[in-house]
Design goal:
mainly beta, 2% helix
């Protein structure tokens, strides 16, 4: 994948970059694996805003992606590599030997015509899905399950990968993209390789209008708000706030640990 740059004919074009989409092989999704996606504007069923600064954006259809990879011991051929407007990663349309088609997250360097398989006895090859107990130490993985049979929940975004550091008893020590080391059950499945579209994190949006296309509305600084809208709002002139940085609901935004105290998989 490469980035496309533009001549600075306007201030917003200067420094703006987009994906070249060289890896994309079709511009139309496989319709039976898509469903309508309705906009919420960041509001819940009661009409209350639960996710601020969302609204508008281009109309999209959701692609149903197979995160479980549960057609075991059956080869699948990659038919196309497609753009997915709902995620940073690309998706690949694969067809199994029984002619069923499914979408999977596109692993880096997989091409049209390649074959992938989900099996305990699969080769250690990019795109293949195996249990952690059958994957050698040091291997890069993605699409990682946290609980047996739940389907991949982590390491799914563009360019991300985890690494198996050690195996102990019935757990694997897995280094996550954040650097955290977690204990994952050895019977959990993961896919070999790194997620594609690795340069996604260096794309420069370039202009406010492009954020609006993605459904992102303007974000207002807390100090620029009124006291009724935020604890840091109000005051004469550029008031400093007089308290530690916090969210609109008063939760501290620097240094407060928000992870639940219950144990996860470790």
């Amino acid at each position: 994948m490469a980035l496309k740059t533009y001549k600075p004919i306007t201030p917003s074009r200067r420094g703006m970059t987009t994906s070249s989409f060289d890896e994309i092989t079709t511009d139309k999704p496989y319709k039976p694996l898509t469903i309508a996606l309705r906009k919420t504007g960041g509001r819940n069923a009661h009409g209350h805003v639960t996710a601020k600064y969302r609204g508008g954006g281009h109309k999209q259809r959701y692609r149903i992606v197979d995160f479980k990879r549960n057609k075991y011991d059956m080869k699948a051929k990659v038919l196309s590599i497609e753009y997915d407007p709902n995620r940073s990663a690309r998706i690949a349309l694969v067809e199994y030997e029984d002619k069923e088609k499914r979408y999977i997250i596109w692993p880096n360097d997989i091409k049209v015509g390649d074959e992938v398989i989900s099996s305990e006895r699969a080769d250690i090859k990019t795109g293949n899905c195996l249990k952690l107990k059958n994957i050698p130490l040091g291997t890069l993985i993605h699409n990682l399950e946290l609980f047996k049979g739940a389907g991949a929940q982590v390491v799914r975004s563009a360019g991300s990968s985890a690494q198996i550091l050690a195996k102990e008893s019935d757990k694997a020590h897995v280094k996550m993209p954040s650097g955290e080391i977690r204990l994952i059950d050895l019977d959990c499945y993961a896919t070999i390789g790194q997620v594609g579209n690795v340069e996604h994190n260096v794309i420069a949006i370039g202009k406010a209008g492009r954020s609006r296309w993605m459904g992102i509305r303007p974000r207002v600084r807390a100090r620029a708000m009124n006291p009724v809208d935020h604890p840091l709002g109000g005051g004469e002139g550029k008031a400093a706030g007089g308290r530690h940085p916090c969210s609109a609901s008063g939760q501290k935004s620097k240094g407060l640990k928000t992870r639940r105290s219950k144990k996860y998989s470790s």
